[in-house]
Amino acid sequence: MKENRIIEKMIYDGDPGHDDVMAILLAAGNPGIELLGVTTVAGNAPLEMTTRNALITMDIIGADIPVAAGCSTPLVKPLYTAPFVHGESGLDGAKLFEPKRKPLDKHACDFIIDTLMESDGDISIVAAGPLTNVALALRREPEIASRIKQLVIMGGGRFGNITPAAEFNIWSDAEAARIVFESDIPKVMCGLDLTYQAVAVPEIMERIRAIGSRVSEFVCDFMTFYNNNSRRAGKNGAPVNDACCVAYLADKNVFTTRHLRVDIETKGEFSYGMTCIDFFRMNSGKPLLEPNVYVGDKLNFELFWNMMISAIASLG
Ligand code: BDR
Ligand code: CA
User: Fold this and answer.
1) Is 20 a pocket residue for ligand 1 (Cβ < 6 Å)?
2) Where is 310: in which H helix or E strand?
3) CATH superfamily of the domain spanning 8-314
């Protein structure tokens, strides 16, 4: 049992992935969060690998949190993975092994639907991979839209990291993203302009290393690989994008938000997968569309990393 305070129940849907694993560790180790399950999707690496990385993480922390594998391809376009960021395994740098834990004998979409439909509407979802599982679950059981307390999405932003206009998760399955962004689910978006403030700079890595536990060693191994990849791009560390979503559920003070209209481009030649964020309320004379997303803005770096480091330390 976690301490006596309001506990945010959540399902983590993602494609582990270095920053996904950081997000899962934060969810598992933060006293304000109850992680009900991890659902996996293809994205950073093929589904088999993202699922294996989630199970390895559970083995490392000794947690019996269910893991359910989901979609192995996007809804419409072919799968495009990111070995240039995460390595062929999706978690290069870690000492990988065959996990003892096994995935549930249930598809991720069924896990999401069943868990939400049996709930009192008090479960949030963090979606930090391509939005394929969430979109498909919504299509299969539209009722879940009214059961999700909050959907915190890592995706989009004012600039891209896979094309000039698009961020990887949204671009990977823009058709799915469009279904999700047009739904009535209360949404928070952690775009790149927010998450690029959550960089694992050398001083942060020293604090994690100083914990001196099995979990901190695991983190240092895979983060060293991830940070070196980004350093080559001229930064002094890599952003742990996905963990921003979990941090927000644990403490809303971790970043500021603005309530804005965000639409997903699914047709543009140069802008496929772009999150079109209406900062200035413009629509060329047509009726303005209502704001539909709380867009993350300024990150409290100290608060974020204090939460992350405490979670890692608490996992032993
Ligand atoms: C997002 O894409 C993936 O590479 C990361 O895991 C993160 O979810 C950042 O664009
Ligand atoms: Ca991810």
Assistant:
1) yes
2) helix 301-314
3) Ribonucleoside hydrolase-like (3.90.245.10)
Contacts of 176 (CB under 8 A, 6+ apart): 74, 75, 130, 131, 132, 134, 135, 136
**pTM, entire model:** 0.97
Helix, strand, coil percentages in the chain from 3-state DSSP, rounded to 5 = 40, 20, 40
At 67-108, the pLDDT tens digits run 999 999 999 999 999 999 999 999 999 999 999 999 999 999
Residue type, 78: P
- Look at the chain and count its residues: 316
The DSSP bridge pattern shows strands 67-69 and 275-278 to be unpaired
Q: What is the DSSP letter of 66?
A: -
Distance 162 CA to ligand 2 centre (A): 13
* Annotation says 92 is catalytic: no
For residue 241 and ligand 1, the question of a CB distance below 6 A is answered with yes
The encoded tokens of residue 158 equal 């004012």
Q: Are 64 and 58 in contact (CB under 8 A)?
A: yes
- Determine the Cα–Cα distance for residues 307 and 299; give it in Å rounded to an integer: 13
DSSP string, 258-297: EEEEEEE-SS-TTTTT-EEEETT---TTSPPPPP-EEEEE
